Amino acid sequence: MSIVKELIDILGKKLNRAQLTVDDVRIGVFYTAVSLSDGHAGVAFTPRDMEDTVCCPRSAAKMPASGKLKGAAAWDIARYALSDNSLKRSVGIAVLNALSARLFEEETVSGFKIYPGKDALEAIDIGRNDRVVLVGAFTPFIRKLKQEVDQLCIIDKHPQALKKDEMSMWRAPATAPEVLAQADIAIITGSSLVEGGLEDLLSYCKNAREIVLAGPTASVWPAPLFNRGVTVMGGITVDDAGNLLQVVSEGGSGYFFNGPARKVAVIKNRLPS
Known about the structure:
Elements: H1 3-14, E1 22-27, E2 31-36, E3 41-45, H2 56-62, H3 74-78, H4 86-106, E4 112-116, E5 131-135, H5 139-148, E6 151-155, E7 170-171, H6 176-181, E8 185-189, H7 192-195, H8 198-204, E9 210-214, H9 223-226, E10 232-238, H10 241-249, E11 261-268
Parallel strand pairs: 5-6, 5-8, 6-7, 8-9, 9-10
Antiparallel strand pairs: 1-2, 2-3, 4-11, 10-11
Helix pairs in contact: 1-4
């Protein structure tokens, strides 16, 4: 079972398929946000490369429910996360993050610990000599990791996202199996839940001491990911859904932490050594 299918199954069972509807959807330039009828909200990365949405008529065919998402059953829209269309997947993952937020409130957690206000890098020990591989050019992490480690590789399909002094760290996506196999610490951006390929990326991290999934998209219920080797998830907790949706619809990205949301790290329980 894929990560997304397992996530939908777990949330459905644990929430008893609660009768929830979609209250609002915003597909912004950088992020997509969804709020539900119970007040919970979630966000997901909005894909940049949408070859399957090249013009208005074809885009309309790919998102046939546009204008009709409000009031739709949340569980129906959650299944968009299984779509072949990346824009639909973004909406579906945002719904799964909103449903996960409800479960975090309702469920007595076991198997992991939650640290509000902490990001993923603060939740792991990184040594100067660790070989760190970052999948996705996540600027805040690059800035911090450049100061902390001597061996940093950045896998991204857009090398132009990096600064001139970072180009020596760049690796093409095709090198992921080899590069991730050498990582002591692997950090994968949550956007991979939308863009696809996460299962493969995790399978390459055979020797990693820590496998981190990070970013606002990485706010889903963690069990399916922890079962596949992830040790830390760094996502967000939404405090003000209305404000968050406004920020997203106005093209915001790094402004979540100025009011509408807080960072949160979810750490898998470690076995005693």
